Amino acid sequence: MSPSVRLQEMIRVIRGARTQGEERGVIQRECAAIRAQFRQADNGTRSHNLAKLLYVHMLGYPAHFGQMECVRLIASPRYNEKRVGYLGAMMLLDEKQDASLLITNSIKNDLSHSSQYVQSLALCTLACMGSAEMCRDLAPEIDRLLRASNSYIKKKAALCAVHMVRKVPELGELFTPAARSLLSEKNHGVLHGAVVLITELCERNPDTLEQFRKVVPELVLMMKGLVMSGYSPEHNVAGISDPFLQVRILRLLRILGRNNDTASDAMNDLLAQVATNTDSSKTAGSAVLYETVLTVMDIKSESGLRVLAVNILGRFLLNNDRNIRYISMTSLQKIVQTDHNAVQRHRGTIVDCLKDQDASVKRRALELSLALVSAVNIRSLMKELLLFLSSCPPELRAHTTSGIFNAAERYAPSQRWHIDTILHVLTTAGGDVRDETVPNLIQLITTATELHCYTVHKLYRALITDISVQSLVQVACWCIGEYGDLLLRGECEETEPVQVTEDDVLDALETVLQSHMSSPATRGFALTATMKLSTRITHNVDRIRSIVSIYGSCIDVELQQRAVEYNALFKKYDHMRYNLYPSLSSTAPGPASSTAGGDLLDLLGGLDVTPGETPSTAKRVRDRGRWAEQGFFFFVSIAPPSVTVYEKNGVTLKLQTDTQTDTGMTVTLTATNSTDGDITGLTLQAAVPKSVQLQMKAPSGDVIPAHGLGQVTQTVLLNNPNKVSLKIRVRVCYTSQSSVCQDTVQIDSFPSTAW
Q1: Phi (first) and psi of residue 736, to 5 degrees
Q2: pLDDT tens column, 496-536
Q3: What is the pTM of this model?
Q4: Membrane: present as a keyword of the record (predicted)?
């Protein structure tokens, strides 16, 4: 390709490139040729070369080296060169470029040019990339052109003034008188520019807004003229007279009528006329009607006019164009709280939009349907929402379930209906519900005393049907453990009773415990439910004891701890087991409390607060006793007699074996602090194998001074009558810089002579 090819030829060659590398090579060669010609004297091809460079810029390739050429061409007396120069300035320059300042004087000269087309080029460029400094320098020239006799120049000057006001808001005062005078023009282009300019001025200055409220009658007459005018080929768009100007006028009226009774009253009749006389079968008419609706809803309009606006949006819902349906529901969503009854009339159409194939329309319809739920329509509308939930896209399920739960909580006609609705949701989309759903439902079931029998029968049927929905299984296990006696009784007035045996119930719970689909939290619910049943059944206590003992060696630490604690109830505290039912039942429903129960854990500690002991100290002692009692440990091997077992966040914990007998040993744990602040709330808990007896003495304190200026010690007495391999697990808890820290370490770093 020769350096002098025409623009059309260069485009043809670039489009003919078969690979990106080939295209890049063509452009690099052409750019090199353009650079070379830019360096030469004026040979009449500058505008052609810049045009080619602008095409290269449109393809995304660097073209910054053409900026100075734009400045030269703008200063040229030839119109064809000046036109390409201004086009290049709009594409290659912006207010951040120093070269943009060089064209300010050329623009000022061209604004006074005798040719309207040269003036137009300068106005378009200034409106596109004029900086704040350029706007301040050239604002008087624009104000002069706003008062010119040429309509072609006035409409472009008005749009240029809009750019200036956006860049330098204080220039609005300069353009206000001229903008007011432009409203008397007959040319639609000038009127359009004037309305846009006045809108910008009113949005940026409250004083100007008050001033232009006086022209509302003039704008109303102008709008009526457009609505009632006959066919005009020059301005007609799909049967609507200049819909672009109508939309702009309506938008300005909305700003002028907002929070103003006088202005709103002056435009009420006009808005009713536009709403009833505009054809909505074409997009142009729909645009005018939509802007009319927004204006009616934003000003202080009459109630009948607002109902008319809502009905227009209701008609939009029947439109085949999905975009129109979408903006209709978006608008209804904004007004549903203030005009609830008017929007309710279109509930059927809105619900039908839930079946739309478009995801955006479906989401808007869902949000609007949830907003329409009330105490009057809760039953009928909830049926539609539950039907939608069964087939809605996965990305909408969480939002749908959350909305249904909120609506049911606010407007449930009865507790049974409320429970049935939540259970339906859990069965349909249990994997998409929020974490708090389980404790909330447990709380609801607890308060519905007369429905305990009905609920436990219904949940039992759900449990034996499907155990894949974890939230539903958790609630079912809790309910069976809590009200299992009602299930075994087989009598229920609310529903058809089911004859269930003790073995049936235990089979169902054991299935949950053994299923690979059950999460650790679900197994915790099932294990606790099994333990609760030991106080309600008579013939299968040994089976329950066997189930519980199996999970005493479970790999899941939380489940293992519960199983060991429950197993201890059967062994050492069996005489207290039947009295634990109130303790287990009275714990607040929730993922943590419904698993084991704080009262049960304190009973296992078997320690009371002694005189002189604070409750918090007693709790730490009970916790230590419980940990030692349960044998809650892992086996890890390390070695020496005195060793640093923990070092983190500036806290160091050392273990030292002080004295040793044939079967006993005294271990001292020493904690120090190297940080700049004190460590508070230090507690140490230890666990050992079941065959080893552990006794923890009271610590020397629970605050470790900063900078290693002090230490906290705690003595642990170990008795190992069977002389098994000794292993110990230590949990460290403390507060550092307002943050609670908790870590666990496993140790068998004892002397080789220790058993």
Answers
A1: -130, 120
A2: 667 888 888 899 999 999 889 889 999 999 999 998 888 88
A3: 0.62
A4: yes
